[in-house]
């Protein structure tokens, strides 16, 4: 009963905040980077080409392939870029958590540093938030009307993880594991996330569900890469995601303050 009361108060507080949100003034893009020397300049160029007021928070997760030198060069040329570097490699979740500490925009979106997701989709993701129809928008690779390229095994794994997440959150998502999660910055004020690696995807989803956020999906394109091209997620990460889904939904109320 105590946990239910706390969650009810949290929903009431956040709902009051959302109902009084100002219009969107700036988009904060968080880009975790680890050994992406071959794609980093291209993807940052694509982000900065988007005609939206924005800041780009790049978190270098202790790259060792020359990515950091390239990032320093790019940051020196573009005032929109804020570069942060981890002293040791910690994982995608840790990089996103670090990026959240530097957010100054009204809306946040996560952007991978490879070329699988196209920043030209930002206006499509932002539309439901600007129109007041959603607090969170997921870019789904499984909805119709978009070009998608990925391996069958990855697609099946994503479907399974999404189904499991839906069962415990009560949501009806088609792509919980998508990188493209766009949300009002107010939603993560005072929130504390734990995931170091890919468990951040179900952890964020569990947080949005507990907050009673209005979540919608829009179709996006996707051009998946293989392991030879640098893809980093594997079986171990899938098992971690299952654990994270259960942990951050079924036992969230038991975590220490």
List keywords for this structure.
257 residues, alpha/beta, Spore Coat Polysaccharide Biosynthesis Protein SpsA, Chain A, 7-stranded mixed β-sheet, two-stranded parallel ribbon, 16% strand, disordered N terminus
How many domains? 1
**Terminal-residue CA separation:** 17 Å
Task: Let me know the number of strands.
Answer: 9
Summed over residues and divided by their number, the pLDDT gives a mean of 87
Q: What structural class do the secondary elements suggest?
A: alpha/beta
User: Which strand order spans the largest sheet, edge to edge or round the barrel?
Assistant: 3-2-1-4-7-5-8
State the fourth-level CATH superfamily.
Spore Coat Polysaccharide Biosynthesis Protein SpsA, Chain A
List the helices and strands and how they pair.
Layout: H1 2-19, E1 27-33, H2 40-49, E2 54-60, H3 67-77, E3 81-85, H4 92-100, E4 107-110, H5 122-130, E5 136-140, E6 148-149, H6 152-169, E7 181-184, H7 200-210, E8 215-219, E9 222-223, H8 235-250
Parallel strand pairs: 1-2, 1-4, 2-3, 5-8, 6-9
Antiparallel strand pairs: 4-7, 5-7
Helix pairs in contact: 6-8, 7-8
